[in-house]
Amino acid sequence: MDLQLNDTTVMITGAGQGLGRAIGMAFAAEGSRVAFHYHSSGEGAEAAAAEVNATGGKAIAVGADLRDRDAVEAAAATVNGELGPINVLVNNAAATQSKPFFESTEEDWAPQIDVTVGGTLRICHVVGRQMAANGGGAFVNLMGDSGRVGESRLLVTAATRSSTIGLTKSLAKELARHNIRANAVSIALVRTDNLDAHTGDADDERMAKILAAYPLRRLGRPDDVIPMVMLLASPLSSWTTGQVISVNGGYSMV
Residue 63: beta bridge partners? Predict the structure, then answer.
C-alpha cells in the first residue's frame, strides 16, 4: 500500500536512538524527508541522517532542548530551511523514571514534567503555527500505556503521559480549521536500547512476570508500532483525528 508519504517533511523528536530513530528510518524508506531531533543523543541522530543520505534520501539531525523556546524555534526553522515545511510531527521525546512514589522527590518530577508536558506543548505550538501557515499537517503523539491505565512505580511518568491524551484531543478540535490532524499511539513495553530504564535489570523470573501481563506473551518491537504511526501520519487517515490508539500486545484493553 502506498502511504502517500513521499515528498513530505517529517520531524521526529527524541530520534537519536530507540523507537524514535526506527520511526525516522521507516519514514525515510517511504520517501519522506526526515529530521531526526535529539537532545543528548546527537551521535545516533547524526548517524541515522547520514545513513538515509547515503542511500539517496534526504535527512538531517537537529538538536534542541525542548525545554528552551528559542532552541525549539531555531530547530523548526532549520528543518523548514533545509527540508521544507514540516508536514508531520511525531512527538516521541519524553523523560521517564521508574521509582516508588514515596521515594521520589520534586527534583525527580521536574524533568519529566518539563520535557514530556512542557516540551511537547512547546514544539506543538511552534510547529503547529508553521503547519497552519502552510495549509495543514499531522501530529502523531506517542505515549506510554501508563498514562491511560496507571502503573506502579510510574506515577509521575503516568501523570505526564496522561497529559498527551488531553493535548491530542484538544489539538484535534482546535486546529482542524487549519487542516491539522492530531492522534496518539499508546504503547506498552517495546524492546529498544533503553528497555532497561523501564524494566530494570530484570532476571528471568521477573521478565516472566512482566510477560504474563501480555496476552500475546511478548514485548513489543519497533516494527509493531511503526505501521500505526505511519498510517496516522498518512493522508490515507485524513478523516481520523483526536484518537488514542493502543498498540500494546493486549497489555490493556480498556
Answer: 38
Compute and round to an integer the Cα radius of gyration of the chain. 17
Give me the residues paired with residue 183 across strands: 140
The string of DSSP letters for the chain reads ---S-TT-EEEETT-SSHHHHHHHHHHHHTT-EEEEEESS-HHHHHHHHHHHHHTT--EEEEE--TT-HHHHHHHHHHHHHHH-S--EEEE---------GGG--HHHHHHHIIIIIIIHHHHHHHHHHHHHHTT-EEEEEEEETHHHH--TT-HHHHHHHHHHHHHHHHHHHHHGGGTEEEEEEEE--B-STTTHHHH-S--HHHHHHHHHT-TTSS-B-HHHHHHHHHHHHSGGGTT--S-EEEESTTS---
- 119, 58 in Cβ contact below 8 A? no
CA 178/CA 181 separation, integer angstroms = 9
Contact 119, 66 (CB under 8 A): yes
pLDDT digit string, tens, across residues 7-36: 999 999 999 999 999 999 999 999 999 999
Q: What's the one-letter identity of residue 43? A: E
**Interval 165-175: pLDDT, tens:** 999 999 999 99
Residues near 13 by beta carbon (within 8 Å), at least 6 away in sequence? 20, 37, 66, 89, 90, 91, 92, 93, 119, 120, 123
Q: Which domains does the chain have, with CATH numbers?
A: 9-246 (3.40.50.720)
Task: Supply the pLDDT for residue 204.
Answer: 74
**Residues whose CB is less than 8 angstroms from the CB of residue 107 and which lie 6 or more positions away in sequence, other chains included:** none
C-alpha cell at 63: 538538536
